[in-house]
Amino acid sequence: MAGLNTVDDPARVHAVVVGIERYPRHSGWDLPGAVDDALRFHKWLRKGGVPEDNIQLLLAPEEDSRRRLEPLTGSGDLVWRPVWTRDEVMDAFTDGLEGRTGDLLYVFWGSHGVLGHDERRLLLCPDASPKDKRCIDTANLMEYLQRDDLDGFAQQVLLFDACATFLEHLHQPTGPAVAAFPTVRRRTVGQFALCAAAPGQVAENDPALRSGVFSHAVMDWLETNAADLRPDLAALLTDVRTRMPGIQSPVSIDVRTLDGSRERLTAPGPAPLPASTGRSRLALALHEAFGDGDLRTRCVEHVTAHCPRAGLGATPSDDRIAHVLLTVERAMAAAVEVVRPRDRQAADRLLALGRADNAPGLLSPLELASLREIFGRAPVLPPMARVIAAVRAAQPFARAWLPPSAEGEPGPTLDQLMACAEHFEAHTGGQSVARPGRQLVPAVVRFTELLAALLPGARRELHEWGDRVADRLGVDTGGLAERRAEALAWPDSLGTGCGHPRVLAQLDVAPPERTAARGDRDSGERFTCVMWVDTGSDGLRQAAEQSGGPLSARDVVRRIKRTVTLLRAATEEPPVVEILLQPDAVHLPVDFWNGADDEDELPLLLGVEWATVLRCAPLASEEVEERRRSELRRRWAARHNDTVVYLDDRHTEGYAAYGALKTKADAARAVVRAGPGGRDRLVQTALKLGYPVVLWDRKSPGPVPDTHFDPVRPAAAVDGLPARVQSYRARACENPAAHTMCPAVLFEAADRPLPEVLPLTGPTEPTAPIASSPSAPPDPAEASS
């Protein structure tokens, strides 16, 4: 990787410099020093001769920083722009670069950050909050900067000082709010990206220096070695890696070199060290641990026997052993198996160094083989039922990889369960705050604890296996006991319920295939779908048939049809179909999806074939969701009264809807009569305030008269409303001119349980914080657990 070239004129250098120090919607995220880092980078550019007009300096300063900026701005020495929204930041890259031309573009960014789906690095914008994580994707930004209508800038250097901590959704199913840059035609551009943290890591901030540790190291090197604005990128990379203090410090992990090749250095645990330094430290630790010659011999023999690729030979040096442990899959885990019974402190040291340098394989070969034997001895493997549904629903990791069941296959194969276990090895967990220095329970052990809860015959063996693995990894026993109690309680937490049988389809829009024509079966939009059934007497359980990947709307209806057919054969009673959607997706016209093939004579309209209602997945905030559930239960208990709250266009201003819905304490349902402009907002308001029944018209082009909903009799018995809506939809097919309504009904029957999902890939307590680190801090729900 050579240094920059053809940058002889500083006037041909441009930059976008971002320092987000204040988050007005959540002051707990304020990041002192981000503005200072941005100003230091700006000063380096100006000292190198870059004109002020070539630099877009975007700052969200705290009050102290704003006061320090005032004299510089007033004297004309500094031009900066306040940015308080995601759109304002994005405008700098869209509109702000229009008409500019040059040889080299710098991007410097300091803010909080998280790791999203598929390890996408997300940068939190100034208007982000815990409930609304507004952000942009670094990979998407880099792709946008390759746009072919951007004149020049064939060389680009991007420096991101932000964390890459895993985003724990828990009860926040909507996840981050990622805004995408416009889709563009791309050209060949040399990009060098340097990021402060490896996957799962915090990027440290030094409160004494008022600077990110990464930014401080980068600027020290640039100011000393690159006064001409042409840094040797390889030397910069090496220096920054070397200067990161301690084995758990953040480092650069992603490099796009200017010759078009790509170097990717990923690590689920602490930061990788430079290869030679990391190996040297491990070799020293091995030398100290192997004071007993017998321990060295046993360790070498054990690793050689179980890791055939090790190739250690008869008398390997400490450096050779260190190299094998850091490069051969599962070799480090095998070595720790031998060291831990003799010297727990030395074993912990080896584990820490292995995580720091990304030693491959969390489980040892013996642990993996033992797990396979336990699964193989289980009399009956669990169906692709509860635990696999939990895995699928654990965002953001599960959807893309889970092995599907074959058609008609009652449950997972042994290989599929092992594939699940090996996948979750990558999510090792962080360090405990409640018990400093102790590792949190890794995802693979959480997964096996869930299986133990569903396999009474194999429970003892799986618990013993989990104990052994947790002990070798230095996991705190109290944390493991808490996770085990959660897993054992989980199968009983679904409740039994009563009443009519039902089929519950848990849907979510598959992220990559969003289209403008929402709900059109031919639009290409795809959905993840997990099917659940309830006979009305034996509780909620997952259906036998599940999808192995995203489905079209038509395929979703087909799967519902097959599940309904099987359930009806068992109960001899037509079930209600419940569609479980995310809170912001209740407007999807799922009840009008057609599952028929184009050549079929008859349609298969979901809401006409079966009584179909919508249900809402839990809201992002646990506190708000608990209030909503409490209100649902109270109003559902009084559902037999005929009090209805009608909401129309008068309620779209201010708090009018809130007041109307709160005034009638005994109302059990709401009917939305507003036009398209305010309809969705009123539905959401009624939903969040815990109304069990919300009825509205999807297609009404404007406000509707008082008699509009009379055909479905919203004031009549609530329990019969789904059937009345179904009947109306059928009549609309018969005579559309006389039945112009497209009724949608949210039917939150409070005594009908929803599927329970446990998080598998992240801690339920926060990892150890570092003062003012540039990352989203732990969710309050995590901290309270």
From TrEMBL:
Residue span, vWA-MoxR associated protein C-terminal domain: 525-747
Region (Disordered): 756-785
Source organism superkingdom: Bacteria
Pfam families: VMAP-C (PF20028)
Transmembrane segment boundaries: none
Ranges of biased composition (kind: Low complexity): 763-774
Compositionally biased intervals (Pro residues): 775-785
Protein name: vWA-MoxR associated protein C-terminal domain-containing protein
